[in-house]
Every structure is written in C-alpha cells, then in structure tokens.
Amino acid sequence: MARFCTLILVGWKFMNPRLPYLTATIHIHHMANQAYSMIKSVAYAAQNAYDDDEFMKIPLQKEFPNADKDKLSELVKLQTEITLDDSIYCAQATGLIFTHSGLEKCIEEIIEFDSSQHPEEWVHFIENKKVSLKSIIEKSKDDIIKDYISDFTKNLKKESLLKKIDILLSIFKPNDGTMGDYKFDKEKIQHIDNLRHQYAHGKTGEPKIDETFSSIEYLIKTGDYFLSLMSEKYDVYT
C-alpha cells in the first residue's frame, strides 16, 4: 500500500496540478486502513475477554464486603456481558461505517479527477442538457461542457455508492474485475451497504466479528482495486 501511494505521488508530482485530489484520496484510504486495524484489535480484545472465565468472575468483595458472593458474581457477569456486547457492537459498527465512508470518498475523488482530465469520456452523461443562449455567447464549447460535467459529478455525490461505482466502471471498463486475490462483486457490495445501513440505524441483530471485519477488508480492497484502475489508465507506474 505504501509503495502504491508513493508511486501515485511521484507519477503526478510534476505532471498534474490536481495533486490535492489524489493526496486526499490516498490519505482517506490510509486512514481507513489504520482505523480498521485499531478497531479490529479492540473488538477482538473484547471478544477474548468475554470468553475468559476468569475475567468474567472479577471479585468485588473489597468494594462490597457484605454482599452475597454468588449474587455478586452473577451481577458482575451480567454487567460485564452487557458492557462487552456494547463494545463489540460499537467496534463493528464504527469500523464498517467509517470504511464505507472512506471508500465512497475515494470513489468520488477518482470520479472528479478523471472527469476533469478526460471530459470527452463523460460528455454522454450530459449530452441532453439544455444550454442557455447566454452561455453559448459568453463561453466556449469546452467550458460549457466542463461546467455541466462538474455539476453532474457534484450531484452524483448525493447518489448511492453502487451508482457511483457503476458509473466509474463504465468509464474505466476493466477486463475481469480482479486484482490478485480480489474479485469485484456488485452483490457483495450491495450486501455490505445494507449491513452498513442497518448499523447506522441500529437495526442489525448480532453479526459475528469475523463476518463484519471480512466486509471491512473487502471494502478496503475495493478501494485498492479502483485506485489500481486509475493508475493503469494514467500509466503511473512508468
């Protein structure tokens, strides 16, 4: 990942004035990786504590010397279960929602960058737009097209992640949707998007940690995949 980021920065340092877009994309993707690692550690630590019999029997006799030991033990166990369940849920929800947002921002900035560099490939999205006579008089054809494409990409930010991905794929036209052991799967993205929505609205049951973090890993790899498509199109590696 670090090597990939370095290649992007070197490739555009002296070639393109829109480096901030790429820098932001790389930074967001890097932060998603960092947050994922941190939250995953917290969640697994909480799960291990939950499964640890000794941890579940923390003695509080010093604080409550006259309390019934069995009842106190049950109370501590229940309280610990509730606390750890909340911690595990929050870790999963935070990781998935944050990484989903990072991927969405990554896709948006690739769209903005590519449409600014190759407007001719995006013109079919706005070809039926009406143009005022004033614009025709005051602006060149190229400027009008760029303005309309800019408006299109800004409005696209209001759409779903899947729609943004579909549009970007229609521009990049990848061969088989693979990158190493990664395989792009639209249905899987949709499933993860639904899970993210459930987490955001507190309507998700109790998904397993491994399942949730497997989804997070897939989102991160999806970001890598689209960045690799961009690097291939702009020949960053040479």
Low-confidence runs (pLDDT<50, min 5 residues)?
1-15, 17-21
Distance between the termini: 17 Å
Number of helices: 8
Helix-strand pattern: HHHHHHEEHH
Give the helix level as a range of percent. over 70%
From the alpha carbons, calculate the radius of gyration and give it in angstroms: 24 Å
What assembly state would you assign to the polypeptide chains in this entry?
Answer: single chain
Mean pLDDT, as a whole number? 75
- The total number of structural domains is 1
Order of strands, widest sheet: 1-2
Characterize the largest beta sheet: strand count, sense, and whether it forms a barrel.
2 strands, antiparallel
Secondary structure tally: strands: 2
Structural class: mainly alpha
Query: Quick one: overall form?
Result: elongated
Strand content: under 5%
